[in-house]
Backbone:
């Protein structure tokens, strides 16, 4: 839509104008990028940071560990997609192409911190330490969730969009009231920024000055709807401004930049900055899930352009160039990834034992009299079915 | 008078026995005592701090317990409930006020998708001990969206406990129990009862709670004994049912009144025992009758008491209409006359 010249003039002087809002970027959206797609470090003055606030490159061992996890993450994504095709899982929302975001989300947090992931963040969840098979329970379908959120401080993988951001805010608020230095990473996608809870979570976190880092993976699509239909803001990082918090945009396929930005965000939040917003500019390489057909809404040329920016390729090139990623190290990472894939195949290859009594067991801390009645009814039904399925009972009619 | 001064006065008068107390002050005392007894209790919502809530139910709490534990939030109900989920996950016991029944609806996604389901989906690993206090139902001449009988929405959602007190003593007792519960509780406070008074021995109630912190949880009570018919009511209609029973007594009919108190879980035992004894029953509720809690109670009673019934179980409920404007609401709400008509209709001629 074009705005008439007269209106443009008026908007320019309308209170806090759009021009003020865009001032730092002047139409060019700034983002932090350290590594170019071919795996070379960009010159320092082209990395997008403000003068005097340059991001240091994380230490070599951290980068090597990040690459190891990238390799595992890619293998997990591909293995899980295969398991869906084999009917071992109902569905799997793959983060193929977003692995750098996934790994950095896990690596930026300390043990006592919390992560609140979405359904697409399985790799981040596993990278935080959750057992891969337990993480996949939701998608296998034998329960709505398989891991104990308290064990690794990982919230449930939320499917109602952005609702988890408020849980993140609450966890941070409780920690703050007790004087703990917990930081909470609240994850969501680009489409989710249109939801009301996104607004409420950012506003609550800002008003209560809470140590929450909102981490938006902008993978360009909410199922089929492109970002242009979600917002006309110049970037999602800009959304922070309206809440009185700072936002930073980062190349979501550049693991080095992600680690640098998220490490700083977590450190700032822990030292009392209040909430921050980080937008990672990335791309969902595969369909929303296996039930989706991405060819209906995006061109192959676009996908190929993003394939050339693959987060694993550029990290590998960089680390090989630095001489730290030797053939032996690569082989050991591949073996680690294969081990996780094997665990997934084995864990999801088994038919999990399901117990009908579980349906009633956890509705409340103690089942109500009504639930006990219903559990007994179902148990009786199941027992009857079991007996009718047996043929070793004398005199039993078929 | 501030809550602090009141508490001091109450303690000084501890041996004085029952004192006149409003329903509102009983609720305030329940929150104050819970805040005092348990550091993990926090109270928040819209206007609940300095103002003490639009109904003054949190009056004096911020002054006594400070802005860390009793605080105002931005005006966003989903935010209030969603943040409470995280707080409850992380060791707190949030007690939140959703300012009006019909203004609670923006929070439904959080309530239905997470508050009700978190314990179940995590196989009991995450408990959400939280209380959603909702000023509830009609009879106060509220303008549009300030009165609604919303209990069925909550009661229909597995995983939520839903209760509503009808007496001053129960206001204290049930709110303390709700705050102590490890399950999420939707606590419906009949607005029209806020300023009613009763002679209540608060010290005795405190002692009762300390001795038995779940004495009323999930339990109905017989509010008035009788032999000929049972009126089953909850929250705002218990008083109306008692008035109808009194009027029926003048006509020579002995009517028992059961105060349901806890909608979820429902006390089939007490309700069934009463109806089996009397053989006749009328369920009285303000909410629209179609697909309602009253309908559920009727179904449960018929299923369990069929052979004891002398007549079909009747309902006296609100009409199936959007909540009416102040000057018309008296036609909508169950009245003593309408209850007496329903009682008359229970096939006494046989």
Residues:
């Amino acid at each position: 839509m074009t705005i008439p010249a007269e209106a443009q003039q008026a908007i320019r002087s309308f209170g806090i104008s759009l021009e003020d809002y865009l001032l730092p970027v002047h139409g060019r959206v700034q983002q932090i990028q350290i590594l170019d797609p071919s795996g070379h470090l960009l010159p320092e003055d082209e990395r997008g940071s403000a003068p005097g606030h340059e991001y240091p490159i994380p230490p070599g061992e951290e980068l090597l560990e990040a690459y190891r996890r990238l390799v595992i993450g890619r293998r997990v994504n591909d293995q899980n997609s295969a398991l869906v095709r084999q009917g071992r899982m109902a569905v799997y929302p793959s983060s193929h192409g977003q692995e750098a975001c996934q790994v950095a989300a896990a690596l930026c947090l300390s043990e006592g911190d919390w992560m609140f992931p979405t359904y697409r963040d399985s790799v981040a969840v596993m990278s935080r330490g959750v057992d891969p098979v337990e993480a996949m329970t939701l998608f296998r379908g034998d329960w709505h969730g398989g891991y104990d959120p308290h064990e690794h401080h990982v919230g449930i993988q939320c499917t109602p969009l952005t609702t988890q951001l408020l849980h993140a805010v609450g966890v941070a608020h409780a920690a703050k009231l007790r004087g703990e230095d917990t930081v909470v990473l609240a994850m969501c996608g680009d489409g989710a920024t249109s939801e009301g809870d996104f607004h409420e979570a950012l506003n609550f976190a800002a008003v209560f000055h809470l140590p929450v880092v909102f981490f938006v993976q902008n993978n360009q699509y909410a199922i089929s709807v492109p970002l242009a239909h979600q917002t006309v803001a110049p970037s999602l990082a800009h959304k922070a401004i309206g809440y009185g918090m700072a936002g930073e945009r980062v190349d979501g396929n550049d693991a080095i930049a992600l680690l640098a930005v998220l490490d700083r965000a977590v450190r700032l939040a822990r030292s009392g900055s209040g909430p921050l917003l980080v937008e990672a500019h990335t791309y969902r390489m595969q369909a929303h899930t296996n039930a989706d057909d991405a060819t209906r809404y995006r061109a192959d040329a676009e996908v190929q352009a993003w394939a050339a920016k693959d987060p694993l390729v550029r990290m590998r090139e960089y680390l090989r160039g630095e001489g730290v990623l030797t053939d032996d190290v690569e082989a050991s990472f591949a073996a680690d990834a294969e081990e996780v894939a094997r665990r997934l195949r084995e864990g999801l290859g088994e038919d999990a034992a399901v117990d009908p009594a579980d349906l009633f067991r956890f509705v409340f801390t103690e089942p109500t009299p009504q639930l006990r009645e219903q559990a007994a009814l179902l148990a009786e039904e199941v027992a009857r079915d079991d007996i009718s399925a047996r043929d070793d009972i004398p005199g039993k009619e078929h | 008078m501030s809550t602090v001064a009141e508490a001091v006065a109450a303690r000084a008068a501890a041996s004085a026995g029952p004192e006149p107390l409003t329903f509102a002050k009983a609720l305030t005392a329940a929150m104050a005592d819970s805040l005092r007894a348990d550091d993990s209790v926090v109270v928040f919502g819209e206007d609940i701090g300095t103002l003490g809530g639009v109904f003054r139910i949190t009056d004096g709490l911020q002054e006594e317990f400070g802005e860390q534990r009793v605080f105002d939030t931005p005006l966003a109900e989903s935010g209030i409930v969603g943040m409470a989920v995280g707080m409850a996950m992380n060791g707190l016991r949030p007690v939140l006020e959703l300012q009006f029944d019909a203004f609670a609806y923006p929070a439904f996604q959080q309530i239905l998708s997470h508050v009700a389901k978190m314990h179940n989906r995590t196989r009991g690993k995450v408990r959400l001990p939280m209380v959603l206090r909702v000023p509830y139902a009609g009879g106060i001449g509220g303008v549009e969206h300030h009165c609604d009988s919303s209990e069925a929405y909550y009661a229909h959602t597995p995983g939520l406990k839903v209760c509503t007190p009808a007496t001053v003593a129960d206001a204290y007792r049930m709110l303390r129990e709700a705050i102590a519960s490890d399950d999420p509780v939707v606590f419906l406070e009949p607005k029209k009862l806020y300023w009613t008074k009763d002679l209540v021995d608060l010290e005795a109630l405190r002692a009762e709670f300390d001795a038995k912190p779940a004495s009323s949880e999930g339990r109905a009570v017989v509010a008035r004994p009788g032999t000929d018919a049972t009126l089953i009511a909850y929250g705002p209609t218990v008083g109306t049912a008692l008035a109808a029973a009194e009027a029926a007594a003048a006509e020579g009919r002995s009517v028992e009144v059961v105060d349901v108190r806890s909608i979820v879980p429902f006390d089939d035992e007490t309700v069934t025992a009463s109806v089996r004894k009397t053989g006749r029953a009328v369920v009285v509720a303000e909410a629209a009758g179609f697909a309602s809690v009253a309908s559920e109670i009727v179904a449960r009673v018929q299923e369990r008491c069929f052979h004891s019934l002398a007549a079909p179980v009747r309902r006296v409920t609100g009409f199936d209409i959007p909540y009416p404007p102040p000057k018309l609401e008296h036609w909508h709400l169950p009245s003593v006359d309408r209850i007496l008509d329903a009682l008359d209709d229970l096939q006494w001629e046989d």
